[in-house]
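Tokens as discussed.
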């Protein structure tokens, strides 16, 4: 296998026929020289995804999703380019020979130790007599053997040095086990002991299915129970952050994309039982409240999130927190309430429980309506003061939400105000006015709080707005149109790059994104590398948005008629345009005055030379 990353990428791409790869995810049907499928990136009712074996590219003619085999895996698996390349390399049986940074090497070492520990815990559960009681406990929860294996359950026996002894016997570095939070150092530095003891072990995996932490449930009859918590998660490590991870997301994400939502429950066994019963779009938090990082992950896979609450214990606090997160984000939030205080695991094992659970999820109530319904149930015919309290409760959640300066957030606020006014029989102007008052009150409280705790540091909520990498801000003029056509031709026909480099400089381009593409193409050509999209991908690793724009330009260029004639026309246009710009600049300097006779004569000579074609 070549050690050069670009050559590695090309070899993997050559070995990964896009029809075979896409066909592993979707049902493809031949359509002339291409293949058709229902697009997985939007709600497609008629096949609009086109897979072209000749160009080795795909494109949806409805939602405009497009790219090569790497882009398809990235979008389907919701991973970056490096992870997509790894997935395709494994699929093709190609061993990557990458030069890893020290940080990457350290992460690989930690992941390897976590995988080793997960295998040991599972082996103890399934094959060691010490795990017999844990097997009986899991069976009592009605979890099948297949579910246990799918989720990688294990057991950490009582004793304190079981994992430590295994590590020494198999030469697994104890310091690395300590770094991932599985071993703790004894007082005074006298050896190590196991962090997890007498617990059923639930591996917590990242979206690629790699163990990064554990949750441990202590055995019901454990002698440690009086002085140990019932549930015990891994400590924060370089791999594990409970405020970012969602249990079961690696197994739920594709199902969530298919049904259009992901459901969030509270317990690990709730997730497992839901998957076992054929409801795989279910995940759980790590015993923490849903936060913005969780929402961002969920949104990558589904446009809607359903929060599943116990009717008795859910209360309004969790809904309020969630509403704050969702007010300004392009994600739909709904709330599902379980009956009789049951958790999903208990409900699903009851007769008819599966049908009930499915109905609860599909009939989940919009979060705002849920909150309004609860408030109105408490006071069905509110007085004037009662109505004011209801308005303040709902608008207070909106006022507490972070400002999101995008159109989606503004539209959502407008919809909330409209619905609130309609439900309570008020004018929208009245609701907007009260919302403005609450926002000002909130801002004043935040100011006073910050003033008490130290100097107030204010950061602008609005980021600098940057135009799309392949589009200029404002109206596209003839200059940028020519620049875009030039890049389309060069990306589709790398052999044209030397011809363009001989005529014009990358500095001649006015659009910064297109200029960066041209700089990299010229640089690749000068280094003796093929200036195509595959090599450009590595050069634009810091700007994935720019590489995506390059792929769009590539697609257009591949379908451009008479490429040689168009290249000659565009280069000719740039030569003429550059000459005209230079003439205007010289003319402006001559008209500007403040020149001595020699300077004026020199500028006039240059202007005459340009007009003469010199």
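Sequence:
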């Amino acid at each position: 296998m070549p050690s050069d990353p670009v050559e590695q990428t090309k070899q993997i791409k050559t070995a990964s026929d896009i029809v075979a790869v896409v066909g592993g995810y979707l049902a493809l049907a031949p359509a002339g020289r291409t293949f058709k499928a229902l697009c997985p990136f939007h709600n497609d009712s008629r096949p609009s995804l086109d897979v072209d074996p000749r160009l080795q590219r795909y494109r949806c003619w409805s939602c405009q999703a497009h790219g090569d085999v790497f882009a398809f895996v990235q979008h389907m698996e919701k991973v970056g380019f490096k992870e997509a390349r790894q997935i395709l390399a494994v699929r093709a049986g190609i061993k990557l020979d990458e030069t890893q940074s020290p940080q990457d090497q350290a992460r690989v070492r930690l992941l390897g130790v976590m995988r080793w520990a997960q295998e040991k815990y599972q082996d103890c559960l399934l094959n060691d007599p010490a795990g017999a009681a844990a097997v009986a406990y899991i069976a009592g929860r009605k979890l099948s053997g297949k579910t246990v294996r799918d989720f990688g359950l294990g057991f950490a026996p009582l004793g304190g040095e079981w994992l430590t002894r295994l590590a020494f016997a198999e030469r697994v570095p104890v310091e690395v086990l300590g770094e991932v939070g599985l071993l703790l150092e004894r007082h005074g530095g006298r050896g190590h002991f196991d962090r997890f003891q007498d617990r059923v072990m639930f591996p917590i995996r990242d979206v690629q299915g790699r163990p990064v932490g554990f949750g441990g449930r202590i055995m019901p009859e454990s002698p440690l129970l009086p002085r140990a918590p019932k549930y015990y998660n891994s400590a924060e490590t370089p791999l594990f952050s409970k405020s970012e991870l969602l249990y079961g997301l690696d197994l739920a994400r594709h199902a969530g994309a298919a049904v259009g939502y992901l459901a969030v429950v509270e317990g690990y066994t709730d997730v497992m039982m839901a998957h076992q019963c054929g409801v795989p779009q279910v995940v759980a938090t790590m015993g923490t409240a849903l936060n913005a990082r969780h929402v961002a992950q969920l949104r990558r896979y589904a446009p809607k999130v359903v929060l599943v609450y116990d009717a008795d214990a859910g209360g309004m606090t969790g809904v309020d927190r969630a509403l704050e997160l969702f007010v300004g984000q392009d994600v739909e939030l709904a709330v599902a309430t379980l009956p009789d205080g049951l958790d999903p695991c208990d409900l699903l094992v009851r007769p008819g429980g599966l049908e009930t659970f499915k109905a609860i999820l599909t009939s989940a109530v919009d979060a705002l309506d849920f909150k309004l319904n609860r408030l109105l149930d408490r006071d069905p015919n509110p007085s004037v003061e009662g109505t004011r309290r209801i308005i303040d409760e709902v608008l207070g959640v909106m006022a507490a939400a972070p400002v999101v300066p995008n159109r989606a957030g503004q539209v959502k606020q407008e919809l909330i105000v409209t619905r609130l006014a309609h439900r309570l029989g008020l004018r929208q102007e009245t609701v907007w006015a009260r919302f403005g008052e609450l926002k000002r009150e909130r801002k004043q409280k935040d100011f006073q709080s910050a003033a008490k705790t130290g100097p107030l540091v204010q950061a602008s909520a609005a980021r600098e707005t940057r135009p799309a990498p392949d589009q200029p801000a404002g109206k596209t003029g003839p200059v940028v149109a020519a620049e875009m056509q030039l890049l389309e031709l060069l990306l589709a026909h790398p052999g044209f790059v030397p011809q363009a480099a001989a005529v014009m400089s990358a500095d001649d381009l006015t659009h910064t994104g297109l200029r960066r593409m041209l700089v990299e193409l010229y640089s690749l050509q000068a280094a003796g590398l093929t200036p195509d999209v595959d090599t450009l991908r590595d050069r634009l690793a810091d700007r994935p948005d720019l590489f995506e724009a390059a792929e769009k330009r590539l697609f257009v260029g591949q379908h451009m008629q008479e490429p040689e004639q168009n290249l000659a026309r565009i280069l000719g246009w740039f030569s003429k345009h550059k000459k005209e710009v230079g003439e205007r600049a010289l003319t402006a300097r001559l008209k500007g005055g403040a020149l001595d006779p020699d300077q004026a004569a020199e500028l006039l000579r240059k202007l005459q030379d340009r007009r003469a074609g010199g």
